[in-house]
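_Per-residue structure_
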Amino acid sequence: QAAKFHAEVKLGGDPAGAKKQKQAAAAETFGSSMDLYLARRRTEGLRSTTLSGIERHLLKNCKPLHALPLSALDRRAIAAQLARLTIEAGPVQANRTRTSLVKFLNWCAGEGMIDANPAIHTNKNAEQSRDRELSDDELRQIWLALPDGDFGDILKLLTLTGARQREIADLEWDELDLERGAITLPKERTKNATQHTIALSDPALEILTARVPYADRALVFGHSGSRGFWN
């Protein structure tokens, strides 16, 4: 073995350096690199829903990959996890996890941790768009069945405004102008990252006007803590 190392050195090699490099690569696991990546994403001012989605995809959905060294991560290992997710959580969740994986591993490649992204050529599931709408009678039945309180008010406002779930569930008093009859969402809280104003009908204003703010709480819904109703 010593003679082999001696020969490598004479040919310009660096056996000791190669050993250290191999050890460093083994220490760079999916999980440790993911922690660095998520720490970076948390400083980018992403919407809370976007960030929580990325965290769910990488922290929870990809947990079986966490202990793998990045150097040992291949397309087959990723495809196996996406196939498992397709069965357990559905094709859409598997596709969204794949998107987060591709972005994460692109970042790893940019940082020099891997030479190529093994997730790029994995298969995507076919998705079927949802085109069914509730009838007026169905909406009426749901409305009458809703309980009093936060949950019922949120669903009624979603029906009246056509807003997204988090836009109402995470609504803050500062975003609400009852005199003007409008909700103004900052760009951090919208899907297309632009400020958006939602006009409020009389029934929507009636629901919001009846609500009483809790002391030291910026959010319209929920009773405690600093997070929205469904967080």
Remarks:
- The beta strands are 176-177, 182-185, 196-199.
- The chain is about 50% helix and 5% strand.
